[in-house]
Fold this protein.
Amino acid sequence: MSTSGGRSFAARWSIVRFSPARATDLDAFSGGTGPPGLEPDPRPPARRLWRRRLFRDRAVLVGAMLLVVLLAAILAAPWLAPDDPTAVNPPNALAGPSLRHPAGTDNLGRDIASRLLHGGRTSVATAVAATLGITFLGVAFGVIAGMLGGLVDTLVMRLVDVLSALPTLLVAMVVLGVLGPGTDKLVLTVTLLGWPGYARVMRGATLVLREQDFIGATRALGASRLRIMVRHIIPNLMGPLTVLSTLDVGRILLALTALSFLGFGVQPPDPEWGAMMADARSYFYRAPRLLVYPGAAISLLVLAVNLCGDGLRDALDEKVSER
Amino acid sequence: MLVFLLAARGQDPAAVQAGGAVQNEEATSGISQEEQLAAARKRLGLDQPLLVRYGRWLGRAGHGDLGTSVFTGVKVSDEIRTRLPATVRLAVLAVVLTVVLAVPLGVAGATAHRRWPDNLLRIVSLAGASVPGFFLAYLLIALVAVRLRLLPPAGMGGPRSLLLPAITLAVGPAALVSRLLRSSLVEVLGEDYIRTARAKGLANLAVVMGHGLRNASIPVMTILGGLLGRLLEGAVIVEVIFAWPGIGSLAYDAIVRGDFPIIQGTVLVAGAMIMAINLLVDLSYARIDPRVRLGVRS
């Protein structure tokens, strides 16, 4: 979405960036399709090579460290938070930083630090849930369309075309405006609007895989189509899939927080970064702190994820790395 | 392609229509008695089955009649017509800014490949892609409008008020385009024809700009459609924050108020714009890259 949006954007982008790498990745993962009878390749196996490249990349290390610190803080929110994130204390509203409230208090006197920590749980949980949902739907539809072909393929791909032509963020707003806001509905909407890009990539990869010899061999051994899909196609898609979803978590998080910011997602008094920023809008001139902290939190988290995803892609993409 | 266009046209207003009706009932029931409610339903044609209503709406929409706003009584087509130019102006400036920001950054990153400016630019562009537009908007308002008093913080008053929203819109896409342009340019600069160009004594700048950039922009073109669509979506948030009277803020207000004819109209227009952009990009792609026509890949 948007930000999401831009689902079609991310999808196209991934396709473009992956196309040169995909074939080689899949070759490596499908256990060597090189011509038989040659001397074994003296280079270390592809897997170890990309891992080494990944850890040599300082940007990835910074991103990973940032990510670990943020996630640890968020996970430990109940123990780290100095106060109850929903406890109001109006006389102490908009207070500056103090020992008791390290980040000050908001317009209702709630502790901002506690709300940030707890809000992160919601933001991260929704982003992870939506990403998993999108990945699941994308893989399911993509692999089924690619394997079965024919009418099923046509129907699924037309649905994908229609969904990716929609202005995603706008449609999500409309759907949530109609259903009424709420965290569960937010995740559901983003998931249902988000899978087409994945389905397209997964279908393409399935079409490539399906023609490879080891799939033919499996079929000759009498494996059912379901078994081929679950045991042979999907495991081989995991490489590109990991990169795709790592690169995408940040974008999904941005879409979710944007919708919450506009008031269509997480509802008060539950803390969530986007919703916190929406609350802070009216107090922006008096206490910009209220808006800047959650905004910075979103930015840092997304940056951490993007650094990791970017490094992961570079490490897996031989063409970029070996230049 | 035609099927896809038709399907998309049919798909989204149907969902919107169903939802809009539900919400309208809620909205009216809040302010009126039972019989008034029934009258309102009858007047708006809501007593008809969903499919009939949808068919009727589609038929009218085909003639350019999108109905009238439930709240203001203004014709939806008029409302959209007055709001559209503001969004188009914003989007065009944002696209220009995207290119102005992304091309130098991408070229700098590629020519300094693997050295510190490249790494710095990598962090900068990733950061640009990571900051949510609604946060960036407030940072810009605080810094440029309030602290430095250079530009007006919100509203529409002269060309200067266009700058902040356009910058906000452009940063995300610019970050992504510069990343893509960089990696594409790195690839192109390793090609044989670049070495040939250098060998015949061309200045570095001429090689990069004339031979490199042109070829490197081909993959960038392919994402342009999605990029513009994304820009339109970002426009919703940006218009709401900057109180910019465009299609995005129109849609947002309509969703909040449950004004379903407006919602339908704006979603339809936005969908049509995205499809038109995608079509244009597909056509121009074939025109820019001669290999698409020849069917020969290097």
User: Anything to note?
Assistant: Chain B has twelve helices and no strands. Residues 94 and 166 of chain B are 5 Å apart (CA to CA). Residues 76-288 of chain B form a domain with the MetI-like fold fold (CATH 1.10.3720.10). The two ends of chain B are 29 Å apart (CA to CA).
